[in-house]
Amino acid sequence: MQVRVNLGEKISYNVYINELKQLKFDTKVVVLTNDLVAKLHLDVLLEKIQAKELFVIKIQDGEEYKNLQTIEYIIDQMCHYQLDRKSILISFGGGVVSDMGGFVASIYQRGIEFINIPTTLLACVDASVGGKTGVNNLFGKNLIGSFYQPKAVYCESEFLKTLPSRELAAGMAEFIKMAAVFDDKMLDFLENLDKKRFLNGSLEDDILAQIIQKSIELKANVVSQDEKESGLRMLLNYGHTFAHVIENQTGYKKYLHGEAVAMGMHMANILALRLGLLDLQECERIKKLLLEFNLPVDYLVLDVDEFYNAFFMDKKTHFKKINFILLDGLGKACIKNDISKEDVLETLKVFA
Fold first, then answer.
1. 229 a catalytic residue
2. Where is mean pLDDT largest: 69-78, 150-159, 311-320?
3. Are 267 and 347 contacting, i.e. CB atoms less than 8 angstroms apart?
């Protein structure tokens, strides 16, 4: 099963679903992963790779390590292995590894090729496709990074079977996001899905592959039209404006990214409800679906003004105007940058 990401002749690539057999390279290859993924799956992957020289770089697991210090460590290791401009980097892990691997590939010797092999559902349906790379800093999430497309992406159900239910649910948050923004028929598909079997990891491979394929097809279509996020691609940030503040305020330790996105979507829906873009039934439908996948929807806002001011460090803020991505009915979304401070503060007070 393949999905094509069309970005022009030189940078288009395929996303392969359950098609990873052998990878052969006539150059040096480095696999970037973390200790947990290495313990579970690295031996399986290394058996599939043939290269002139093969190296492994392991980094610490967790969003709190997605920073410039880790990037410097990776680059130092790559220099130690004397990787050159023809070398290839393989990101083998979740969204954190995917983001950092792509960023390193974009800046090492002014750019080398890289391949994404995601090991979480969230990375399969979102982070590994589209070329967004980067790291966090004290001021916010992904404020340092680049747009840099992979050479290929391989999504394998085999690597998802060891995921705990919390990680599976976090990945589903991004799938729900895609459905709510672009295709409300996928909400029907999700509502009919066996949640219990999904969360305990016993869902059939073909259904899991279908979930990945549907999400990637939607994202590939968006990215092919708007690679650098100048308009249409911004809609993929539904829920993320709130989520990034939540993640930053909690030090990237309390919530998985998908969990923060779930809360962010609900907060965005309460704002859309206040503005008359969503009705209560639509808002409750998304909330119910998130809860059925054991995702959190309520975040306690301790300081409304502090939360509001944090929005202005978001990448989607321009000229001191916050760009909110809101649903305008299910299956549709819009970018709103003219929302009054009062409406935003009143929305935040609902969660205070």
1. yes
2. 69-78
3. yes
What is residue 313's predicted lDDT score, i.e. its pLDDT? 77
Mean pLDDT of 209-237: 83
Question: Which residue among the candidates 21, 24, 110, 341 is catalytic per the annotation?
Answer: 110
Compute CA distances 221 → 112, 162, 183, 211, 294, whole Å. Answer: 25, 30, 12, 16, 29
Percent of the chain topping pLDDT 70: 97
- Residue-wise pLDDT for 25-48, tens only, equals 999 999 999 999 999 999 999 999
In this predicted model, what pLDDT tens digit does every residue of 104-123 receive, in sequence order? Answer: 999 999 999 999 999 999 89
What is the structure's pLDDT at 74? 97
- Which is the catalytic residue, given 66, 132, 177, 287? 132
For residue 134 the two structure tokens come to: 């980067």
**Banded model confidence at residue 226, pLDDT cuts 50, 70, 90:** confident
Select which of 233, 266, 315, 336 is catalytic.
233
The answer to whether residue 274 is catalytic is: no
Rounded CA separation 220/137 (Å): 28
Q: Which of 41, 219, 285, 315 is catalytic?
A: 219
Question: Which of 113, 174, 227, 247 is flagged as catalytic?
Answer: 174
- How far apart, in whole angstroms, are the C-alpha atoms of residue 314 and residue 193? 34
Confirm whether 318 is a catalytic residue.
Answer: no
- 58, 244, 287, 336: the catalytic one is 244
- Contact (Cβ atoms closer than 8 angstroms) between residue 322 and residue 312: yes
Catalytic residue status for 151: no
Specify whether 244 is catalytic: yes
- pLDDT (0 to 100) of residue 314: 66
Q: Has 254 been annotated as catalytic?
A: no
When computed from its CA atoms, the radius of gyration of the chain, rounded to whole angstroms, is 20
237 is annotated as an active-site residue:
yes
Active-site annotation holds for 233: yes
Residue 6 has pLDDT above 90, yes or no: no
Clarify whether 197 is annotated catalytic. no
Query: Mind giving me the DSSP string for 44-84?
Result: HHHTTEE-SEEEEEEE--SGGG-SHHHHHHHHHHHHHTT--
CA torsion 151-161-157-27 (nearest 10°) is 30
Task: Report pTM.
Answer: 0.85
